[in-house]
Design a protein that fits this description.
By secondary structure, the protein is an alpha+beta fold. Among the domains are: 29-69 and 132-194 and 301-308, no CATH class; 197-247, no CATH class. Helices cover 50% and strands 10% of the residues. The protein has 13 helices and four strands. The protein has helices at 2-6, 44-53, 72-85, 89-99, 101-111, 115-127, 136-145, 180-184, 187-192, 197-221, 233-247, 255-277, 280-288, and strands spanning 29-35, 55-65, 149-154, 303-308. The chain has a four-stranded mixed β-sheet. Helix 3 (72-85) packs across helix 4 (89-99) and helix 12 (255-277) runs antiparallel to helix 13 (280-288). The longest helix is centred in the C-terminal third of the chain and has 25 residues, at 197-221. Bound molecules: S-adenosylmethionine (SAM). S-adenosylmethionine (SAM) is lined by residues 19-21, 35-37, 40-41.
Length: 313
Amino acid sequence: MLFKKFGAKKGQFKIVNKSIFDYKSSQKHDIVISLGVIHHTSCKEKAFDIKAQHLKDGGFLVPEIGNKAGVFQRNAQRFLLQHLSEGKEERMVSLTNELCSEYLDRAEKYGKRTRKSIIYDIYDIYVNPKTDLPSTAEVLKWFARHKLQLYSSWPPIMPAVLADSAERDPLPYQSYEKIKNILGLAEIAFLIQRDDDIDQLKALDKGAAVIMEPLEGLTSLLNNITPETRLDFGAVQKQIKACKASVNNDFNLYAPYISKLRKFLVEAEVIFKALETRELDLVKKSLNSSEFLFRGTCGLGMNWYIGHRAKKN
Ligand SMILES: C[S@@+](CC[C@H](N)C(=O)[O-])C[C@H]1O[C@@H](n2cnc3c(N)ncnc32)[C@H](O)[C@@H]1O
C-alpha cells in the first residue's frame, strides 16, 4: 500500500549495477544515501568523497556506517574465533556456539534469524576482504571537507549539553576538527554498550534528580511573573539554599560510563593475554568472568548520520 502510493513508478528510477569507483556521472541529487557499504569498499574515504560529490547544494547525505569503537567488541569476537579455530570452518562454528552463546541468543531474539545464519554471518564478515571502519572524528573530517553540516545522527554524537539560541548557527562544520574529541566522546558508550539505554538512564536519573528537583523549584518561583506578582523573597532564598546544597553533590553524567570503561579495559587486558596463549580453557575462564566485554549488545554495530550542505547565497 505504502509502495503503491509513494513508491517510484517505472521510468522514474534507474539502477546502475557498478562499483562506486567506476560510476561516472555528472548528475547531482537532493538526497544521497549509502547503507552499510562505505566501510566494505577498498577505500572508505574515496567512497565517501564520490557520494558527497553527487550531492546538490541544499541536499542531504545519509551515510549508514559502523564506528571503529562501536564495532571493537565484534571485531575482537571475530578475531578470537579466527585465532582459536585457525581458519577451520567446522571448528569456528562449534567455537561460536560454545563461546558466543549470549551474543547468539540476543541476535536470534532481536534479529529473528536462525542461529546457523547468525554464525555464518559472523563467519562471512571475518572472511570479508574489507571491514574498515572510521572513528567519529574521521566521519566529521569528511563532512567538513565537503562542507556538510551534521544535521542529525543516531546515536547522537553532539555533546549532551548545548545552550546557544536557535538563531545562532549550530556548531559549524569548520569547528569539527577543533572539538573532535568532545564529538567523539560518545564512542566510550558505543564501545562498552551492554544494556539498553533506557535502563542505564533510569539508574542515572536518581543522581540528576538531586540537582534538578530543587532547581525546578527555584525556576518555578520566577515563572509566570506579572506586574501583580508579590515575590516571596524568603521562599526564593530558601530555594537557592536548597539548590546550593544539591550542587555540593557531584553529579557527572559521564562518570558511570568512565567507570564501566575502567572495568572493560581490565577485562580486555585479561582476554588478550589469554588469547596470546591460545589456551581455550584460559580464554573460556576469562570470558566467563567478564562483566562487560562480550556481554549484552557487545558494543554498537552501526551508526547513522545525516549531513546537510547549505545552498550557496
Ligand atoms: C553489508 S552489505 C550492505 C548491502 C545493502 N546496502 C544493505 O543495507 O542491505 C555491503 C555491500 O557493499 C557492496 N560493495 C562493496 N564494495 C563496493 C563498491 N566498490 N561499490 C559498490 N558497492 C560495494 C557489497 O557488494 C555489498 O553488497
